[in-house]
Design brief:
- With about 140 residues, the protein is an alpha+beta fold.
- It is built from three helices and five strands.
- The chain has helices at about 1-20, 75-105, 125-140; strands at about 25-30, 35, 45-50, 110-115, 120.
- A three-stranded antiparallel sheet has the order 2-1-3.
- Helix 2 runs antiparallel to helix 3 (about 125-140).
- The relative contact order is 0.11.
């Protein structure tokens, strides 16, 4: 009985550890939005996201104590954080739009998933339409 309990605990730990080291996938959906998941999408081109390495972060630089500290209000800090979020989202949307345009102009066969969950290939007109949409997104996000 004790051996079975120890074996159960060992197997449980191995299952949990294997789940923690799973892969993450990134892709652009039919609306041009970037999506992330631990399961690759069916019929969409996805890229595997590498987990962060265990390398230590570089040591922070020594602070310059000659300058007076700048004190920001909570509102200024929140606005700065919002700007940083928006800039990061813009960069991400720009990169995904460029990837989408590259895919549409590559000459490769591109598949999509319809409402029924069935895969279909884009014809030349649909590829041109998707490429035009990607160019519009690039104009909007890549400034």
């Amino acid at each position: 009985m004790r051996v079975a309990a120890h074996l159960f605990i060992l197997l449980s730990c191995m299952v949990l550890a294997s789940g923690a080291s799973g892969q993450a996938y990134r892709w652009v959906d039919k609306d041009g939005k970037v999506r992330y998941s631990d399961v690759p999408p069916q019929g969409a081109k996805s890229t595997t996201i590498k987990p962060p390495s265990g390398a230590p972060a570089p040591a922070p630089a020594a602070k310059d104590t000659t300058k007076a500290p700048v004190v920001k209000s909570a509102r200024e800090s929140a606005e700065a954080a919002d700007r940083e979020k928006n800039e990061a989202a813009s960069k991400e949307n720009c990169a995904s739009s460029r990837e989408q345009l590259t895919l549409m102009e590559s000459g490769q066969r591109v598949t999509k998933i319809d409402a029924k969950g069935e895969r279909y290939y884009l014809d030349d007109a649909q590829r041109a339409q998707e490429a035009a949409k990607a160019r519009e997104n690039i104009a909007q996000w890549c400034k």
